[in-house]
Amino acid sequence: MTILPDKVGVVIACILAYAVSALPFVTFRANRIVQGDARGLVDALPASASYTLIAIVLIAAIAAFFRVGIKLKLAASLLALCTLMIPIGLAASHLTPADNTYARVSPASGFWLMFAGLALMVTDTIARLDPKPYMRVLLLLAALAISTGIILSGQWNGLSVMKEYAARADIFWTEAWRHLQLAIGSLIAASAIGIPLGVLCYKVEKLRVGLLNTLNIVQTIPSIALFGLLIGPLGWIAANVPGASDMGIRGIGMAPAFVALFLYSLLPVVSNTVVGLEGVPNSVTDAARGLGMQSWQRLLKIEFPLALPIILTGIRIVLVQNIGLATIAALIGGGGFGVFVFQGIGQTAMDLVLLGTIPTVILGFTAAILLDALIESDLFKRGRRS
After folding, report:
1. Which of 173, 291, 305, 306 has CA 20 to 30 A from 252's CA?
2. Residue 363 contacts by C-beta under 8 Å, 6 or more apart in sequence?
3. What DSSP letter does each residue of 15-69 carry, written as one string?
C-alpha cells in the first residue's frame, strides 16, 4: 500500500523534470539592489557539475515515476537532495568575479522547485516506511548535521543570504535568542496556567463553556491587532506601577508580544487538557475508585498520565504556532527573526527576508518532529497499556 496515489509520484517527476529543464537555477545581481539576471543550470555551473546534478535529479524523478522499492526511492531522493545543496554554493563562486564583494547570487525558482519536489519525495518515502520515533529524530539530527557541516565548510559563503548573515552575525544570534524566549517562554507560561485551567474546566462543567468561548474569541483576534491592543494597557502599567518598567514591562517590545503569544497559547492547551481527561475510559476511573483512590489521586495517578499524549499534542500545536507568530513581534519592537523579515521587505532585499524566514521554518519543523516523536514514543505507549 502507498500513502500517496501513483499520480503524485508522476507529479513529483514532472516537477523535477520541469525545474531542471525550464526554470532558472540562480539569479545573479551585480549588487544588492539591481534587477537580477536569471541563469539556468548549464550557465550557472561548470559543465561537469551541471550535468552531474541534472543526471542525479532525473534519476530521482525516474524513481518517483516508476514503482520501485521504497528504500531505493528514499536513497535516490536523499542522494539528489544532498547533491543539490553543493552546486548552489558552487554557482555563487562560479558566477562571482574574483575580489568582487558587491555581486550577489541567490537561489532562483528552479532550485526552490527542485528542493520542494525532492523534499516531498523524501517525506513521502519516510512516511511509507513508518520509522520508529527515535529513527525520525536521528534522521532529523542527520539532516541538521549535514546542513551545519556545509555552512561551516564555507561552501555557501558566496550566496547572498550568507552575505546578509555575515554582515549581521552578532545581531542574528541575539534575535534568535529573543525568538526562542518569546516562543518557548510563552508556551511555558501558558502550560503552567492552561493545564490547571483545563483540569478545572473538566471538573466544573459550568465553567468550561464560558472559559472556552472566551479563549475562542481571543483566538479570532488578528495577531497584529492584539499586539496593538496590548500597547496601551502595558504602557499604563509601566508608567503607574512601581517596578513594572524595571521588570521589562513596556508598551512596546517583548512584553506585549509575550502576553499576546501567551493568550493565543491558552486555547489549545486548555481544550486539549479537557479532551484528554474526558477521553479516559470510565471503566479505568471506576476501577481506581473501587480501589479506594481519592479524587486527586485518580487525577494525578490515572487520568492525567492517560491524557498526557493529547495534552502534549496541544503543546506541540502551540509551540509550532508560537514559533511562527513570534515573527510578527518585530513590528512592535519585540525582536526575533521577524526583524530581518521586515527589514528585507522595507529594503526590497529578499535574501534578508530569507535570513529571517529559513531559521523560523527550521525551528518549527524541528519542534514538530521532536514532539511528535515524544508523543509516539514507547514511554507513552507503555503508559497507555498499563
Report:
1. 173
2. 179, 180, 183, 323
3. HHHHHHHHS-SEEEESSSSSPPEEE-HHHHS-HHHHHHHHHHHHHHHHHHHS---
DSSP letter, residue 97? P
Written as one string, the DSSP assignment of 178-246 is HHHHHHHHHHHHHHHHHHHHHHHHHH-HHHHHHHHHHHHHHHHS-HHHHHHHHHHHHHHHHHHSTTTTT
Longest dimension (CA), the chain: 81
- 8-state DSSP, 1: -
pTM: 0.85
Angle between helix 47-65 and 6-22 (nearest 10): 160
Torsion of CA 147, 177, 365, 84, to 10 degrees: -20
361 Cβ contact partners less than 8 Å away, ≥ 6 residues apart: none
Instruction: Please give the Cα distance from 277 to 311 (Å, whole number).
Output: 9
On whether the CB atoms of residues 338 and 331 are closer than 8 A, the answer is yes
Condensed to tens digits (0 to 9), the pLDDT of residues 75-87 reads 999 999 999 999 9
Which residue is it, cell 526575533?
336
Chain-centroid distance, C-alpha 268: 18
Compute the 3-state secondary structure of the chain and give helix, strand, coil in percent, each to the nearest 5.
80, 5, 20
